[in-house]
Structures are given as structure tokens and as C-alpha cells.
Amino acid sequence: MRLLFVTQDFPPAVGGIQTYSWELVRRWSDVGAVHVIAPSHKDASDVDTSLSARVTRVPTAPETLPLRGIPSIIRVARSFQPDIAFHGQWHTLGASLLAQRLTGFPRRIVCAAHGRELLFNPLHSIPLVRSTYTLLRRSLLRIPDLFVPVSRYTADLLHSEGVDPARTHVMPNGVDPTRFQPLTHSNVRAQLDMADRPTLLTVGRLVPRKGLDTTICALRSVLKSVPDAQYLIVGSGPDQERLQHLVSHHDLTDSVHFIGRVAWDSLPQYYNAADVFVMPSREDPPDVEGFGLVFLEANACGTPVVGAAAGGVPDAIIDGVTGYLVPPADPDALADVLVDLLKHPARAREIGQVGRLHTEGEASWDHVANAMLHEIRATL
Fold it and tell me: Would the pTM of this model clear 0.90, i.e. be above it?
């Protein structure tokens, strides 16, 4: 099978969708011919040469690939003659339809769906243009033979846009358990020069929908039961100043530590240094958690996870098995779960171990990529 992979989000750019694209391309190019079309990037050379797939970089920004990538997609369709065009998001679908009409290829079109891209409208402040954008999106969503949404939540978004459920097959995200794996707790804390205290961790972009303010508010109750607990926040973003003010307001500066952005290769150390990973996301349309890769990354390191039952998170956490789900924006419910895990470390470790087993099996990228490829082949 020959597969054309069209994506606006590809390494060396960093993010959840970039990781998704990278992991699928790496595995699919081991079992078939894959040609990637992605935006240009000044550091792309090392990434592209590390793949067995061929990569065509279009000299454009990610947001303009849907238009500026059309000539490249048609040219590659004509020369490569792909059986499948796989699109990382819906915006580029029109180019594959045009290529199909002009060249007869690709034979089938498949599209991923993550969440936010189905809600976000860059022209929302202009009513007439906003409705035109919505009509365009719904027209393009009629093109694919198959959608592979990353969660049931995202599948429901597709269905609300008029996509036939028969054309959707939920394929949750995965994780690489060889990159994210358990390390010795004490060694990692020493390497990070961390105090040996009960530790909560969040990794992610600092934006309101991640729910870090809920965790900060919950921490006040946690400290009454676990006085030496600390909360590490890895990441940066526009909400940082508000969160720091909230920490100061509640006199939590000795317990909450803003680490900032860290190298991707350092993330396993932080996941392993934590006793509990926590991210109680909430829906803040158009900003939503379509899945939550970080929960799988933490689980792969043997760390139990706590998230909120919002967006696609229930597909990332098996409630009561690999971690716990709490109501969104509920500091009291969150505090109860965090205290229980911190005061019962043996139970927390057991949940983390089950989470690790989950990521070695059906939540591994190897399993996800193979299962998705099976569904894609079924369209031919």
C-alpha cells in the first residue's frame, strides 16, 4: 500500500499532533511506501533524513499549507500514485479531492480528528464570514472515506458537523513505552535536584482549560493532610502570570514550583519523579482536550494519573484502573483523590504499574498504528 501523509503539524515543530504524525509515519513507513507533505522548518533536515519515508517540505507556514500545498499534493499524487491520502487535519482535504479528480489518485482519503480544529473558527468575530467558514468546513468534512477521531468526544464533534457515524472509527492516541519508561524514583529526583517530598506534577501548556487553577485550589486541602506535598508545573504559556498570582494569593509559594519548558528528552525524568500526575482539564470551547497524550506518557513511566471527565480525557484514563477521573472544576473532589493517592503510596504504585502495562499493550503506538492501518486498508 502506498500512503501519502499530509500534515500541517510535523517535527521538528513540537506538540501533541506533531508527535501523533511522527509516530504514525515512523511505523507505517516500515511496512509500506510513505510520502509526507509538511510545512518547511529551518531544522527539518535531521528529522527528514532519519525517516525511511520520503518528505516533501512546502515553503509555507502550517496555517497556509491548505492553499500553498495544493501544487505539491497534486504533483506527488501524479508521480507517487498513492492508494491512500491520510490527512492530519481537515483543512487540507480539498487538495486531495482536487488531486483525485485530476490524476485519479489517491484512491481513498482518510482524515484524523483531534478536537480543537473542529471548534475553532479564526473568523468568529465576523458573522457573515464566520458562517462561510463553517460551511466550508462542513463541505470538506464530506470528502473522506474514513475519519479516525482520537476519542469518542471528538467523534461526537464530527457527528454534530454532519459526518456519518459509519465513516468514523475511534482510534485513541498511543505512547512509545521505550521512550517513556519507569526509572528509579530516588535517582531521578537526585538528578533533578528535587526535594524528596510527596510530589504532584502537571506537564502542559499553561492555558485556562488545562485546569491548573483547580489543582492549585485543591492543593490547599491536600496540604492539610500531606503538609510536605509539592506541586511541579512543567510548561509555559499565557496563563502563567495568573497562576503565579493565584499561588501567591493562597500563600503556596513554598509548595508550587513553576519549572518552565524543558527538553522533550527530559520529560521521562519528571514523570518518574512524580508520585501522581494531575491535569484536571475542562472544556473551554474552542479550546478542548481532545485526548491528553500526557496521561499516557505518565502512565508509561509507571505514574498514576488524575484527570477530569471532560473532552476526550475519559479515553486516555481508565477510571479506577490506570488513574482516576474527577468532575471538572471541582477542587474538593480533586483534593480527595490526590490525598488518597499520596497517603497510600503502595496503592498509587499499583495503579501506576497497571498504567504501564496498558501502555505496553493496546495503548502503545505499535498497537495503535497497526490497528489504524488495518482500518485504513479496509477502505480499499
Answer: yes
